[in-house]
Amino acid sequence: MVxxxxxxxxxxxxxxxxxxxxxxxxxxxxxxxxLARYLAMTGAASRxxxxxxxxxxxxxxxxxxxVKPAFDIDPEQDLVCLxxxxxxxxxxxxxxxxxxxxxxSSVWDPQGRPTVMELVKEIKQRIYPVxxxxxxxxxxxxxxxxxxxxxxxxxxxxxxxxxxxAKVKGLVKSEEVSKLKKGVxxxxxxxxxxxxxxxxxxxxxxxxxxxxxxxxxxxxxxMCDAIGHPVIYLKRVAFSGLDLEGLQPGEYRYxxxxxxxxxxxxxxxxxA
Length: 272
What we know:
Elements: E1 2-4, E2 33-34, H1 35-42, H2 47-55, E3 59-61, E4 64-65, E5 72-73, E6 80-82, E7 94-99, E8 128-129, E9 138-144, H3 147-154, E10 162-169, H4 174-182, E11 185-186, E12 189-190, E13 195-201, E14 205-212, H5 219-226, E15 231-239, E16 242-243, E17 251-254, H6 257-271
Parallel strand pairs: 9-15
Antiparallel strand pairs: 1-17, 2-5, 3-4, 3-6, 7-9, 7-17, 8-9, 10-14, 10-15, 11-12, 13-14, 15-16
Helix pairs in contact: 1-2
């Protein structure tokens, strides 16, 4: 099902509700989970953010403050509280959103700019963006409440491919394409090799397809700047085999179980 929320723009305060009840689900007797992973499974935070919350002393287990993210719990027996409340485990969902320009890929923006959360207001689960597309970039953005899944998708070790179409200023020469393919030096180090194709060009601008496996901040824009061709327009058209077929800007769809399974298998295979 495709849902259109592109015209629902306005200010919104993000509230993260908690269910005040003991969490219960079927596990084998004696099954233990790391505390940080457990919080990620509830959707209260990504695993990395959950680790930060634990270190900050905001999490209690059976009434005792725990500051070690690696602390093991028995989900069937232990009572876990975050900021005095017990988060409930949610059904895991993942959305594929066609993010328009003019939105921040974040749950909240301190500058008051529109966020992608305004496009998914009717989703009851506490989802958040998987990685980021900057304010002026449109295209494919995953959103989920599954912290483990999100980590696999964005961590550089799993090398999940992302394909962009970039319109840049000027006529890009073959030697400049070669630089992008081999890797260019940025202020945070040299980039991994990229796949680059010239789709169309003239003396004024060039349209390129760029595939990368990293996820640095504004990476494609900085790569193009590094070869002297600033980006005019940028769109992420694909992510690890997924594309935007059937969607318009502001629309989204749920990923099918088999699509999620395929992404997880790809990440684990890339790590190996």
